Amino acid sequence: MSNDKRAASAPWIRTRLRTAPGAATALAVLVLVTAFLAAAFPRAVDAYESKGLRHDIATADAGRSTVEIARPQPGLELPQEQREAETRNPELTRVGTALLKALPAPLRADASSVAYGVRTTKPSVATEPWLPRPDAVPPKLTYVAQSGLKDHATLASGAWPTAPDGVTEDSRAVQGAVTEETAAELKVKVGATITLLTAAQEPITVTITGIVAPRDPNGSYWSADPLLRSPSLVPDPSSSFPVNFWTGTVLLAEDTGPVLLSTAAEPVVFWRFPPDPTGLTGPDGSRLTSVIASLESGPGLLKVRRIAGGTAVVGTGLGTIVEANARMRDAIGPVIAVAGLGIGSVAAVVLLMTGALIAARRRDELALMRSRGGSLRGIGGRLLAETAVTVLPASALGLLLAVLLVDEGRWWPGALAAAGVALLVCVALPVRTTLQHIRPTLHGAREDMVSARPSRRRTVAELTLLVLAVGAVTALRRRGTSTGGGTDLLVSAAPVLVALIAALVLVRIYPLPLRLAARPMARLRGAIGFLSLARAGRSSAGGALPLLALLLALATAAFGGSVIAGIGDARDDAALASVGADARVSGMGDRATLPDELVSTVSGLDGVRDAAPVRVEYSVTMPEAAAGDGAGTRTDTAADTGTAGDDAADAGDAATAALVGVEPASYARLARTHGLPAFPAARLRATGPSAPLPEGTEAGPERVLPAIASPAVAARLGKEPRAVRTLSGDFRVQVVGTTAHVAAVSSTNFLIVNAASLEQQAPTTLLLAGAPDPGKLRAAVDENGKKFVVQLRSEERARYVNTPMQAGAERIYLAAVAAGAGYALLAVLLSLLQTAPERKTLLARLRTMGLTTAQGRRLLAFEATPQALLAAGGGLFTGWATIALLSPGVDLVPLALAGVAGADAGPVPLRTDLWSLGLPAAGVVALAAAVAGVQAWWASRRGSITELRAGDSR
Q: pTM of the entire structure?
């Protein structure tokens, strides 16, 4: 008896897991993957934001990122001993240590690079005759007694400068050093002396005892003030003529600061603290901005003054760097939210589909329990317990994997996301199952989508979602993804809402073609077509939930693919706009011309498909705007772009333009090769009054040259010939067409003429199409001297290297494309598995009636085809429509070109990527066909008696 009781009280959970281990394992794997993705997403966002902040600070110029605390020299009202003591190393070290400890979190300094000392802020004229004077102007030098010279430099020659005992304000001889660059440019040698005058015009002799080499020339010690490392040739602002003079810095021995107090060079005491970004995280950005503002003019400054003196000031450009990083983060965040919400919605729907599949498989079992007196609370509790045993460990393992693989980021957002996945699965299955068994269920009428009629409640719900989707898409088109106050979830969820409405609409119209096709199929002799359509119309695999999952997944994959494609295209276009072709050879100066030997040699290199010599002259003064002719230059060719009204409005901004002299045929070929707007070479044909001139021949100003201009220049010149004075000759131009882009220059204002009609025809630039070897190309150019520059489109494209923030955002979108495609295929698989028992039973019954194996395979394939085509076609349309609707409101500049100096920062819209649209959709159809084929093959291996003996499955 006791054994019977023990057997009757066998644990439910253990029994269920032993009964269906495959289903439990599949659910655990799905939850693990989904929990991992959910937990990894916020951690990945935190990681790229943290790395981006550190990268921006670490790569910024040290003169901007360093926090410098400075105060003027001690007041003259103080005793001399006190003034000197405040500029000696012990006092400077004490204050520097206190300031280092007082820096508020999260601002931390790199203690190994902290520097302090005394420096002059007003350059002093050095009158030594051996110093270089480029324009007969003597150099002006600054002097600094800075700590840590031996730690940050190596001695190249001579000896380290030392401070004699008891250096005071009255000392008149000190030792110093200069860097190798300063010594080379200013002709300084070991043993040289430089005179520094006091305020009383008494000489202080500075003896150069050594020449040093910086250990880390780009480090903050040497780069916070670049003159410490390298002298500079600067123009004299006090001269009315363009004259230059040298300026540099002499490094005095440590602890010789008191001697600078006697000069009139306005010495200051300073402490420099380079930031240490290694411990910063993305969320620290806002705190760091607040802390820096407080240090510059707030409570932090008061604390600094209590330590360093009442006249101390804090100067740094670190706040600007952090604010620029925050702007990029705010611009990228809403675009990333679109991917996050899309994949999250897909994952949620797939999890609900999984719960629906499990509920369908256990419907009869639970109906039996309910009919024998089982309570809803008891049934729901058991389902919750057995689901939690599988789901909670899987969610925890997914969270652990996310923490291990994504090494940075806050833990609690990922934990909340993983917990949300676990909660959804644990609650969805018991709730869905128990709601189906509130009343004991009997066998009812079979589901039939063809004859089904939507209820009023469903109609109201769909209309509500339609209004929300239209509002979200309208807001996105008008204001973009960024609202200025953070991420707007409704706007970021617009692709999800569009896919949701498309799913609901397609489910409503799906029965229509089935009804139309069923009638002619019924009149055919074969039964396969009619049976497949009948099964497709009655199958729950074509319901709203599976279709919604597919459309969401395909739309998200298409959106992510379009983002990646848009970034790549934008960078390619920016590189082409910067270089003008695959390769470019030009002089270092604007007026440098290319010799004929160089042009012929480079044009004949292996890999060069075409070459276009171009003569470019910048800043050509344009005539005054023609009255009333703003729209007179409009023509009907493909090269003409823009509107006359806009051109007239911009005419006043085209006071200067770049003159581009081209060989029309070669330039037209080059433009066509690189996908630029079609260039009407025939319009620049040099005939009649604009016929080519022999080289060096002067032409009268009455010559009229046909020209193709930018829209603004065309609006300014009008339709009549206008006189233009250039270094290439004086002539008149008549605009015969407009184009918005030209390969040779990046300026938006330009004038293109036939180079053969110019007095000076020597090219200044050579544009190349093809892929020449960079080494051979540069070697060929260097044979003609070092005054020519080679630019490669590939190298310019490589310059747009992703910052950590941009790279992280791109990786998230790549993951979104992959996850969207994966969830789409999983949704297809789940929808087919839900009706697998019915199909196997159907095949078994039909085989008893004479259905062959080949006919069974065709039947299952034809049955799956309507749902697969509906999902694939709907996914293609939804993805394309989502991109078309949202592209005006999404600008990818922060992801594509932000942070690259000189990059074209024009709008970068979304562009449809056919691969991201087509591959997942094709995968849906292929998977549906493969599952149907495998199912038919497997059913053919089992006898009809095996399938039918378990009972009649409806």
A: 0.78
